[in-house]
Amino acid sequence: MCKDKTEDGEKTPDWNDVTENAPEADAAAEKTEPSEQAGPAPEPTPEEKLAAELAQLQSKYLYLQAEYQNYRKRVAKDLADARAFTVADTLAPFLSVFDYLTMAENAAENTDNLEAVRQGLKMIMGEFFKAFDEIGVKKFESVGKKFDPSLHDAVANEPSETVPEGQIIREWSGGFKLGEKLLRPARVVVSAGKKAPETEETPGENAEKDNGEQEGTVNGD
Length: 221
Known about the structure:
By secondary structure, this protein is α+β, with helices and mostly antiparallel strands. Helices cover 54% and strands 14% of the residues. It has a domain at 137-194: Roll (Nucleotide Exchange Factor Grpe, Chain A, domain 2). The longest helix has 46 residues, at 46-91.
């Protein structure tokens, strides 16, 4: 087969040679080109799955632990603030009572008028109970009431001709409530009822007793 030469003296490729070498060139191209249709990724092993789950759980645990610590700090701060506000609200009404007590002390040192001191103390007691009302504390009455162990603390029993048994004669210290909650029971003296009369011996009984004692003495001799 005749092959033409170019002006440079080089041979032009023969068409038959090109077609004959085409399959070999295609095969070489297929080997060098990356595969367009890659196979599916391999499934992770059970160990790899467990390691991934463990890492995820550890991350969640650290997050929850940090959140819990922040929650504890917030709760502690809220409780401290609430306690401070409660104490402040409770003590504020009694500051005026303290002022009146200070004035009463100064007045008592500079006067001999006991009536004025008594009036001052009465005014202070009024302010004291006013402060109690502001925070919801009430003093309950006990004298003349039936003894109630849930409200009263009996310190003594006394016979009484006028107060029935089981009723309260007098208070040693008052009882107080905050709403329905008992703050302090009242210490009270409870009536034991009328005193039992003493039995009196008749003259006949005394004579019989004396005769019996004399007879016993004679028989003994």
